[in-house]
Amino acid sequence: MSFALELRDVRKSFGKSEIIRGANLAVQAGERVAIIGPNGAGKSTLFNLISGRFAPTSGEIHLHGQRIDGKRPFEINRQGLSRSFQVSNLFTRLSVFENIRCAVLWSLGHRYAFWKFLADLDDANDRTEQILEMIKLDKRRDVLAMNLTYAEARALEIGITIAGGSSVILLDEPTAGMSKSETKRFIQLIRDVTVGKTLLTVEHDMGVVFGLADKIAVLVYGEVIAFDTPDAVRANARVQEAYLGSVLAEAQAAAA
Amino acid sequence: MSKPKEFHFKPLNVGRWIVWGLFAVILLVAPRIWTSGLAQTMLTQMGIGIIACLAYNILLGQGGMLSFGHAVYSGMGAFLAIHALNMAGAGTLGLPVSLIPLVGGAAGLVFAAALGYVSTKKAGTPFAMITLGIGELVFALALMLPEFSGGEGGVSSNRVIGKPLMGITFGPQIQVYYLVAVYCFICTAAMFALTRTPLGRMLNAVRDNPERVEFVGYNTHWVRFMAFTISGFFAGIAGGLGAINTEIVNGEVLHASRSGAYLLFTFLGGATFFFGPIIGAVLMVFCGVLLSELTKAWLLYLGLIFLFMVMYAPGGFASLILMNLRVAAFGKLKKLWTSYLALAGTALAALIGAATMIEMVYHRQLNEALGPELKFMGATLNSAGLDAWFGAGFLIVIGVALFELVRRQYVHEWGKIQEDIEKEIKRREAL
Amino acid sequence: MDQVFINLLNGLSSGLLLFMLSSGLTLIFSMMGVLNFAHASFYMLGAYIAYTLVGIIGFWPALLLAPVAVGMLGAGFERLALRRVHKFGHVPELLITFGLSYVILELVQLIWGRTAVPFTPPEVLQGSAFTIISSPGEGMSLALGKAAPELCAAALCSTFPLTRAFMMLVALLMLLALWLLLTRTRVGLVIQAALTHPEMVEALGHNVPRVLMLVFGSGCALAALAGVIGGITFVTEPNMAIIVGSIIFVVVVVGGIGSLAGAFVGSLVIGLLQTLPLTVDGSLATALTAIGFTVTPDTPGYPVLRLALKDVAQILPYLLMVLILIFRPKGLLGTRED
Fold first, then answer.
1. CB B215 to CB A101 under 8 A?
2. Which residues 6+ apart lie within 8 Å of C179 measured at CB?
3. N or C, which end of chain B has less CB nearby within 10 Å?
């Protein structure tokens, strides 16, 4: 059976430092995977490699069975993969509505048309309204993106990511910097908008991870050292060692 | 569970019809109000300038692409149009004069497509440098090919050719004006329409965040390239109209100074609003024709105003107008009257001081034979004596110092008013 | 042969002058992200201010003082105007330096007039550095300074002006000083770091705004130094900024944005490209004729084919820039992808 997203021995070096040292991952369609790991493990770099921001130094990345490593971001997006950014990456001088609409245009086939008016594109406008309702920003549709509050900006960030209808969604620390209540709201939002899609999130908040993910991938020093259900990962010795250090892990194991 | 069928109801946008109607009326009526020959020439040039500056703003204001080589496309449009005009006059090209600008447009399109592909490979500052280099290249090449550019004398032509249609020969200036007015209206409408299409919107997205655009499925380079080509098309039309208007085209139309003028005035008019370049084009013709007659230092004044605008009003005159209209809409303009008067007064004082100095310097430089005295603003000044210099210098210092004081007060008041407006907006939202 | 040698030296000296200018431009651009459109204007200011100072204090003090004066003007501009515009982004920064170039040009024309001024080199720099005499009978020989007229009567004399030699000397000294500064001093270390990672340098506690003001001022001072030397070697006129202005941008694009080594290589390449073809009378037409084609005024494309290489020399740098953009967009030695 072919995987939605597959990484085969992906490596990435920046100059002499190898950041990703042979990452392997196979995600099935519809799975929700959380990628966790200590700081500096290379989680964001991995996302950048998958989404095409950087090209891997070696290794293969397959999306729905087709190779996407080395391709430009727009090519990868057109093949069905979309990502959000850790620092909100919005179209600052466009309104919330326009932001979403820009994200739906290509997927609806409008491409570089300069002979039709945006106001007449019912499919684009309807889909935009749909997305706005999903991310609960319909009341703020005419506000410029640069004037949004932090949480609203993060919601818009997710909105832009899912608007195109990609089947594989990558969310890079979607709840970073949010309060507890905002985070809870967001987890529900993410669950709602990614129904039926394959989801990968980078997260630090374990509450989010256990609330959202079917499987967890643990990235340490550029390698995936575990990829399993949350409980299995929790019990994994290598994971404990990576997070807690071997002395402390042994002490904990001895005390348990 | 399907959603009930949705009905779309768009009320007739009366405001838009009024604005465009007004625009058309102004174009129609202007030469009837200002009837002198000079006025009609200027109006014609303004119409041409509006098309050129709006085309430039597709790049600058809508795409965030700073080009120093826009004159290449209006210039090539002018050259090919005048060659076409000559061919039409000789009978080898069966094209009426009224369609000659389209030849210019086609030339602009082709050159923009060819050169634009390479130029738009980069963005931001490198893009600006590339357009500068290509501008120099094309200018120099044109001069080297007198078969094409007519050498020093340029290429001349005659626009009164063929059989007159309904009495229109395009001989008199007024007829040329109306030809320009028609093209101006159609091109303005077309470029406005562009801002409301998918390509136009994605161009804005590229301006705001070129990286993110790639992640929503669009090839940034391609968006920029298409915008560049469309801009070249309209620039070529402007060039073609210019060729018909002046009946002579030489290397000047390709020169970097013309590109610089497009940039300067489009920015002064206001790049962030659609109608800003229209203001800019009007200013461009005024300054070029009238201001340059008044004083030799007009480019210096212009440069200083430009610097001032970049620092304090990067949205140009359009933004100043709109910001004050917004304040007026909330009924708070009265509070700013005194500040504006004071600003204007102090600025005027400083300006008079500076202008006095500048005129005295020019007088000494150019009119030495006439002696050290000159007339300036009704007063006789002795440029050899220290009094005039001291007086001017004093005026500048006092003017600038007072201006700065008033400016700080103004900024303070402006800030308060903006806060009040924000509160009012929030209040209205909550209703 | 001797003409080629002299031309080679001319090209190298032009290239070194371009380097003096493009190094300052690269430093400012790499550290501040600002492309100083007015860089060539400061070059011109240096020449004019030196011209005025020479009458008061003599050439050699002027050579030192003019760059300092211009450097201070540049630092002042950075402090008062440029800094205000930083927050608006790169396009307004470029626009403000563009506006400045207009203002400087007009001020220069206002103060010194629209025609060239007679900025002559000092006594010691007038004349030739050396002369190459190639006589049909005795082959080539070298004479220091200007050769005696009798020797030149029967032979071909090619001279290399002292001003150009001085230009090369100053440029090489400046290159050495810059290299020493960047690699051996603490300030240089900070600048090197800020060349590629300006925010990090600020995060490390260096007073980046003050450093930026210094860098901008120094860049302008370097341009002014080049201006003094350019002024005595070439014509000092209001046009000099425009002539050299667009070329240094080409240099930076060809060499690679953000790379000093690239600026060096780019300058030399462009300098040679502008000068070496000046001796070549041939054109595409002559080349085609040499391989057997007949080229007549009726041949399609004749106006382009008949252009002599020496006439085309001035646009070759731009052609090179376009080629580089197509085949190697990062530039020859470019490091930063902007």
1. no
2. none
3. N
